[in-house]
Amino acid sequence: MKRLSVALGLALCVALPAAAQMYKWVDSDGKVKYSDTPPPSNVKTERLRIPAHAPDAPADAAKGGAQKDGVKSGPKSLAEQEQAFRKRQAEAAKAEQAEEQKDAQAKAKEENCRRAKAALATLELGGRQQRVDEKGERVFLTDQEIAQSTAQARQEAAAACK
Asked: Which of 20, 25, 82, 124 could disulfide-pair with 36, CB 3.0 to 4.6 Å?
């Protein structure tokens, strides 16, 4: 418990200077100086970092515009936070489902292309080709039937591999 307290104290001490305004200037000796305190008024100063709590003019204008449009400002209630969380969850699930569906379609298209190319390669090898008829018997194709099947396989491969 002591270690946690010490670590928390050190973290807070380290974080405090991070929010400070930083200045850069050249002193009378020509050396560049950096500091979180403003330099003397007779020296040209360059601001390096604006504190996080300092409001921006554009952000204030946007807030004012949103308040004029009737949008509620300030912290959200627990119910509003829960509703926003559930909405983000639903949108993420929907996006994930769409991505999975897209991946599945791409995989199916790739598999169809592979099969069409394999069928075409088998027909282009030449030699005797056979099919199984409706009775379950092997039937050898004629040269004309092989040529027709090859042309059809080329068209199917071209369509499947677009």
From this structure: 20
pLDDT, one tens digit per residue, over 73-107 is 678 888 899 999 999 999 999 999 999 999 999 99
CA separation for the pair 114, 120 (Å, rounded):
10
64 is a domain residue: no
Host domain of residue 118: 79-162
Tell me the CA distances in angstroms from 128 to 23, 151, 153, one per residue in order: 88, 17, 17
Q: Which amino acid is at 68?
A: K
Q: Which residue has the tokens 């599945």?
A: 104
Rounded Cα gap, residues 78 and 63, in angstroms = 22
Task: Output 29 or 95, whichever has higher pLDDT.
Answer: 95
CB of 20 closer than 8 Å to CB of 54: no
